[in-house]
Structure formats: C-alpha cells, structure tokens
Write a structure and sequence with these properties.
This protein is an alpha/beta fold. It contains 14 helices and 20 strands. Helix content is 27%, strand content 23%. The longest helix has 17 residues. It starts with 12 loop residues before the first strand and ends with a helix. Keywords: Methyltransferase, S-adenosyl-L-methionine, Transferase.
Length: 515
Amino acid sequence: MPLCFLSPPPPPLITCRVSQPSVRISPSPAPPPPSLSLSVSPISTAPPSLTCALHCPHFEACSGCTHEFNLHRPAIVDEATEFFKTLGLSDFTFDSCKLWGWRCRAKLAVRGSSENPLIGLYQEGTHNVADIPDCKAHHPNINAAVELLKKGITALRIEPYDEDEGTGDLRYVQMAVTTYSTSLPAAERYRSGKVQVSLVWNSRNETSPNSEKLLALANFIWRNGGPRNNIHLIHSVWANFQTSTNNIIFGNRWRHLLGERDFWEHVGGIDISLAPSSFGQANTRAFDTLLRKLQRYVPMGASVADLYAGAGVIGLSLAATRKCRSVRCIEINKESKLSFEKTVDRLPNLVDSSISWHHADTSKEPLSWIMGSDVLVVDPPRKGLDASLVDALRTISSIKDKAKFSSESSSSKDKDEKRPWMLRAREDSVQIGSKMTSEDSKSLPKTLIYISCGWESFKEDCEDLLSSKTWRLEKAHGFNFFPGTQSIEVLAIFKRGQGVSPKKKKSEKKKKKRL
C-alpha cells in the first residue's frame, strides 16, 4: 500500500497519538483502550503516520470513504483554518474525535441473491452495491448485525431487492447502535452497544403476501442475537414498508416487531429518545463533544430558539445544562415529535423551563421564530440556511419596531390567524411548562450559534451574514464527524452588534505592548 505524501499544514500541526481513555475530555462513556487524542507538535516533513490510516479492505470499492491517510486531519481543515484567518479569526480549533468504529447509524442497500446477499453502499456513480462486511467506519456491532442478517437471508431464502424489475423482499436496512446501558461500567458501554435493525420491506404493509417472510426474518435475527443468546447483540427489530420506485429509502409506514420499542442514547448531558424514522447523528461521540462545547456559549437562564431542531436534542440539552428560561424547537419533520416528547419526559426534575416543539417550516416568515430569543441555534441540512432566514438575520437590527408592534398586537393576531403554516404549527405543537412571557417575546437574539455539516454552504452563509455588518464572527470550532472523508462539522459563534473585530483586537494588543 503506497504512502500518500502531503504538504505540511500551517503551524501548529495536529498529529495523533495513542493514549489512555483517562485523558479524554468528553464525560460520555469511553471506548476500550487505546483511544485517540490530540497533541500539538512542530511542523514536520515526515510522511503521514500509518497509525492514522484507514486500513480498510473496502477502500476504493466503496463510496463511503475518500482518503486512506491522515484520518485525524483531512485536508479541508487547512482550508477552514485559512478561511477563518481571512475573517480575522486565528484561533480556529479542530477536534479529531474517534477515527475508527465511529459510525453508530448506517443505511445500507441490500442487493444480490439469497445465496449471496450484498449489503453495503453504492459504488461511486452507480447503483451497484459494494459489499462491506469489514467496514472500519462502522461500530463493530453493526458489522456483526450485518453478518447475522446475511445468514438469515440465506437460511430463509429472502430475496434482495431487484431495482430493474422492482421485485424482491428486502430493499434496505438501517442499523443504529445505542451505547446507553447504565447496568455496565462506563468504559464498557460503547463496545457493548446494541443494534436496532430496521428492515425496509418491499410491500405496502404487514398484510402483504410476503409478510410471513418478514416475520420469519425478524424472528431469526432476534432468536440469534437477542437477550437469550450468548452474545446480546440486537436491541430491537423494526419494519418499514416501501414500494416506491424512486431513490427514497423509507416509506411512511413503520411497525415495531421485536425487542425494546424505545431507543435511548445519552448525549449533551441528557437522555434522548430516537425513533427509527427520526434523524440521528451517525457519530454519537463527536456529536456529544460538539454539544459540550456549544453549551459554553449559551448564558445561564437564556431564552433559546432551536431551528432545524429535529427531535430537539440541542435545545433540550441547553434547557437542562444552562437552565434556560425558555426553549422553542422548530422542525419540519413531524416524525420527530414523538421522540421530542419522550426525551422531555426524561429530563431532570430540576429543569424548570418553558419548552415547546413546533412542526413548522422555518423558511416561511422566519422572523416569527427568531423573535423572543436571546440565543438562536441553527443546524440546517447540507444545503445551508434558507434564503429567507439569511435575509431576516441580515436585517434583524432594523426590525426592533416590527418586534414591538408584533408583541403589542399578538393577542389580536392569535384570534385572527389564517396563515396555514402557522395554524399547522399550532396544531402540532407541544408545550411543556408555562408559555413565554410578553417581555420575552419582545427580545431579539444577540448570539447566533451555527452548526454546519456543509462546508461550502456555510462559507456562503457566513460571508452573507458578515457582509451585512449586523453580525460578527467570534469563535469557530471544527469536528471530525466523518473520518475518512473530506468533510468537516463546524460550530460557529456569531454576535450581533458592532464590536471589535479579531483583527483590531490584535493590533490594539500590539500597540499596548509597544507603549
């Protein structure tokens, strides 16, 4: 295997080394030793260390990973460092996170034949499935569950889906690992994670002719991987029914078949519930690290609006750890509502906040969701913020009169509201505790916390926000959510109002030193 020589990044160079779990900052359950941590060292022209190489037999055949070496520092980190430097921010940090066995949630295509099933990802630019039984990114128990599923497919003669003909039984499988187990010592929880298996079945519902095969496969998985087995691997088995010929993986109908119904994880200081139909971060450990960092930028007792909230994990973690006055979570996917409600029920008793979840599209009149918050948290999809939201944020300093008018006339609006998206948001909303006070409803956010999974869209949104002179960039952190790929998760903190830019602060410090 040839070494890949890269030009050295600007100082300081982040390298990876082996250390004991005790040095990890994250308070979440630690994996078995050895684990990876970061150290800072001088620039070196040495080739990349093989200790940070992928070592995956499926590399190149599979489209999941794009580079083999320097997993701890993808090249995009250097680009991000330079980008933030041009904006006057020289203290951009990057957390390498866990480099192997990090993926706790995987959606995999099922193709081939019952005698030789292929379970994996599509090869680049095709719909040919690359079988990836020894994926190095997967939590090891995902690979074990895939092996068990293959045995069931062969033993029961389950037919994998044929895209050309639209025939077959099993189209996809989603594997999700929960490392939540208070009965185990913290150091053993990650390694002993249980797998929730969701079978995407090629039928309309559980009464279809091939439903007996579905139940037989579910029973095979549970019998050979459930709690009565020597190795308890499987958390639960679910079915999703999908007959569409498009590329959408899941249909709208779900059914719980075997095992535990509720799927729990512990991140950001709280227990969270995730239904198989709701969005969940693939890299649980990295997400927990990001949440712990994010919490530092939210003042105690703040009022928070969480846009693109999903099941409200970010907002609820802030309610618990920062004792927020109010937290509003706004999400377009109605499937997240149930997970939100279950998570709220598990919040510590000391949480005394006005908490609400709203089924709404933030692109429609975003100002109505921005108003009433001190801190605005946005976690948009890869495409970035909706244009209407960017416009509202750019002009937020000039809408104080609008905010005042809105608060004064809110009671009459409530009576006469006819906008369908607002009425729908009310019908599907969940309110915990007292509603926001009229005083809170007048406030506008002074802090914007932007979590980005799309680097190119983030750069565009960032420049748009800064060009308005309404916001200034205060801090930025990067996280290695997808080792082996050229991607980066960014946590950026913006402050509203005119302030001293990082460049000016540096020049002022130099002047003081000269004096």
